[in-house]
Amino acid sequence: MQKIKKLFQALALILPRPWLLNEIIHHSSVYRKRAIKEYMLENGLPSVDIVKLFNGFKETVYPYAFLEGGSLPTDIALLKALAKKYKVENYLEIGTWRGESVANVASVVKNCYTVNLPDDTIMDLTDDAKYVQSHRFFSEKLPNVKHIAANSHEFDFTSLNTVFDMVFIDGDHHYDSVKKDTETAFSIIDPEKSIIVWHDCMSSPEFVRWEVLMGIMDGCPAEKRKYIYHVSNTLCAVYFGKKMESEVLIPYLLPDKKFTIEITGEKIQK
To answer: CATH number, domain at 223?
Structure first.
């Protein structure tokens, strides 16, 4: 009887607000069940230790804003360290935001491209001029960064005539978008040599963001899925193109590594 009552209560909420169905369809628990059933990923991706990955880990992150919507410092440090380790010359990212990540990578990579929605499209979606103005703040004037104003789902990436050594996917984090951007990434890399990094495959360094993870897995070629890993202490997943030493991610284990953080703040001259 109680279940029937709850059903009618739910219908009363949903009928005048059909968009609430999306909350159910795209609930984290739905994607988690799929990940377990289809990919046996009960604990998410296997996790690669960030310190072991680089035989020690030391990077300087600059610039970094410590503002809303940014990556973790370890996420950006990971991008720089990967770019150096894999001798990346051509880098592409989907989703520019303030330009922190591409500005950091541009300090160690020759050619950088970043794709983001046009300003007028963002304005139509948000109606927030300050939000629009924040885009590309740190990267707009960098000579080795080419900004492309386009929807990544519609842009013809073959027009760039480039095989990318590294792709960073940090655009729309809904399932369909992640899946599409993942499919695109695999079409413009050398799958034997290049790497792909996805941001926000985790909601925190210890807990999976299941919708993003399923977008990654479903967008990845079946034979390549075994080469995708979470990198410890970050929100990132990485396609390495080969098997890596890894372990099962278990939240709340005692820390097995520690980091040194030095913070220097400076005013930006306007």
So the answer is: 3.40.50.150
